[in-house]
Amino acid sequence: MGTGDKYDLVIVGMGSGGMVAAELAATLELNTLVVERHRVGGDCLWTGCVPSKALLASAKVAHHLRTADQWGLPALPVPEIDTSLVWKRIKEVQQDIATTDDNVERYRQMGLEIMFGTAKLTGPHSLDVDGTAIETKWILLCTGSRPVLPAIPGLEEAGYLTSENVFELDSAPSSIVNIGGGPIAIELAQGFNRLGIRTTVLQKGPGILPRDEPELVEILIERLRAEGVDLRLNVETTGVKVGDDGMKVVTGTDNGEPAEWAAEQLMICAGRLPNIEGLGLEDVGVTVGKRGIEVDERMRTSVPSIYAAGDVAGRFLFTHSAAHEAARAVRDMFFPGKGTVSSMVPWCTFTDPELAHAGMTIAEATEAFGEDKVEVHRLMLSHSDRARADGTSEGAVIVVTGPKHRVLGAHILAPAAGEMIHELAFLIKKEMAFNELASMIHVYPTLSTSIGQLAAEVAFEGAKKLQWVTRFARA
User: Fold this and answer.
1) Mind listing the pLDDT tens digit for each residue in 103-116?
2) CA-to-CA distance for 138 and 25, rounded, in angstroms?
3) Is position 69 within any domain?
4) Is residue 35 domain-shared with residue 140, that is, in the same domain?
5) What does each C-alpha distance from 181 to 190, 204, 207, 234 come to in angstroms?
6) What is the CATH number of the domain that holds 316?
7) Of 233, 249, 270, which residue sits at a domain end?
């Protein structure tokens, strides 16, 4: 059981959060046990970020072949795509990561003890793992989340795909209906469509990606529809059935009118639920809320010796947020009071173009500070030299500032927007003024030049107020 009477730390779950926490614990030379019930890597490697981005990479190549004439090249008629080869590549990418960076032996070589099994809390400092009693000073729960299954009559009988099993297929279906309009649904819809899979998206509300800047979402919607994605808004689904031809049929209403949508497969992308079942949380007094295990700003649960991080804690359901939270939790355990997590978490939806988000939307900033205190700075990519040269001028950079020009929010629709958002996220986190960025030289020609241009405009406006000084200088 290790070198002492009990472990310093037991981490439950070895996904995005658990792996980072384990590596930090190894660096601190803590006597650490990691319990994993399935496989190292979690959702990110096996059902989320990695396979979806591998899919999107293949889909982008197919799209560029079809549309090469936009770059002065002959457009190539892409024959029917053998998606089994795409799915084969996805699995190869996963295995490459699983056997290198996410290899369990790599963690064991760090000095960590790894146990495969199902953990259940038995006390503030104890767990049971498949009949083995474990004692520890601290516990970190990183058990992740799983797809929500909406209560649609006939769904179970008809069968469906989710992000957990779609990449376990040998090939893609010929047609698919996605229920849901969040990031997972939209990314996969564009990827499927570009691979020649007839794709329909059914969204219950009036728009997709409701947490992002609406102005940029509208541009993205136009792009998706132009590419051929059948995106339906204001849909109510009432049932699922299987037709005589074996096709799965979703019944419901489209803007109040009766409608049906048929496809070879149905995919559910309607949100996620925290994996809390079977952990024994209630037995030891850990409080659970609507979004998951309730934690404070240091990721502590209602039981002081038990922390939670990542999707199971329900703050932000992103790999990068899980990693941040888990590292801060371990820091707080062993350096008390030093593990406060950041509430400013940027994110990106990896469509083409990408949609990145940091801080407040225009509406959120206006509500918080008042319309007269908020300024919105825009630069359309049609004014970016690099975007025009690359043939990717569809999109914009939007920066929202408040009192003293402090950056409150940033939103980018552009190729590699996820790479561009970080300098703006840094300004938000540090509560810096946007014009402070004007003094930093941006490489030209890059898409990030647009951010520098916007910052310079703010600085130039400030310079106008000092015109009177130049009169004395010229005298």
Assistant:
1) 999 999 999 999 99
2) 12
3) no
4) yes
5) 12, 8, 8, 11
6) 3.50.50.60
7) 270
Percent of the chain exceeding pLDDT 70 equals: 96
- E-strand ranges in 216-360 read 230-232, 235-242, 248-254, 257-263, 265-268, 272-274, 306-308, 347-349, 354-359
For the beta carbon of residue 253, count every other beta carbon within 10 angstroms.
13
In this structure, the chain runs to a length of: 475
Please, which residues have CB within 8 angstroms of residue 190's CB and are 6 or more apart in sequence? 56, 59, 224, 227, 229, 351, 352
**Average of per-residue pLDDT across 39-67:** 92
Q: How far apart are CA 162 and CA 146, in angstroms?
A: 9
Locus of tokens 């059914």? 202
The burial of 115, by beta-carbon neighbours within 10 Å (0-12 exposed, 13-18 middle, 19 or more buried), is given as: middle
Asked whether the beta carbons of 176 and 248 are under 8 A apart, the reply is no
Its domain, for residue 411, covers 353-464
Q: Which residues contact 265 (CB under 8 A, 6 or more apart)?
A: 160, 161, 173, 175, 176, 177, 248
- Biggest CA–CA distance in the chain, Å, is 90
Quickly count: other Cβ atoms within 10 Å of residue 153's Cβ: 13
9-23 tens-digit pLDDT: 999 999 999 999 999
Q: Confidence class of residue 470 from pLDDT cuts 50, 70 and 90?
A: low
Closest to 48 measured CA to CA, from 320, 352, 275, 346:
320
Taking the C-alpha atoms of residue 353 and residue 8, their distance in angstroms, rounded to an integer, is: 45
The string of pLDDT tens digits covering residues 286-305 is 999 999 999 999 999 999 99
Distance, CA of 373 to chain centre:
31
Q: What are the structure tokens assigned to 19, written together?
A: 């792996």
**Nearest-CA neighbor of 266 among 170, 147, 161, 189?**
161
pTM beyond 0.85, yes or no: yes
Same domain, 200 and 114: no
Residue 283: half-sphere exposure toward Cβ, Cα within 13 Å? 13
Q: Are residues 456 and 326 in the same domain?
A: no
User: Does residue 119 lie in a domain region?
Assistant: yes
